[in-house]
Backbone:
């Protein structure tokens, strides 16, 4: 039984030195601080504005996807050439 007792004492000591995670959230238990809230009067977006933004985001995403694909292919070709060079 000394093994079980040592395990229990190790668990108790580890629990004692653990951080009290509830203390991290004690600052946020209060109500919302409205003084830090900055209300903004943003203009309403029209359907045309939203369509333009949507098209712009789609174009940027396709550019990013093509660049990632090209980069992946270049790295794949470089690794395969290096692998073939090592084998021969």
Residues:
């Amino acid at each position: 039984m000394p093994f079980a007792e040592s395990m229990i004492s190790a668990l108790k000591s580890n629990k004692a030195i653990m951080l009290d995670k509830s203390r991290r959230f004690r600052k946020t238990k209060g109500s919302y601080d409205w003084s830090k809230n900055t209300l903004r009067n943003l203009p309403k977006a029209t359907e045309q504005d939203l369509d333009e933004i949507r098209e712009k985001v789609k174009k940027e995403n396709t550019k990013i996807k093509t660049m990632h694909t090209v980069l992946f292919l270049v790295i794949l070709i470089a690794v395969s050439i290096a692998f073939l060079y090592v084998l021969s």
About this structure: The chain is about 65% helix and 0% strand.
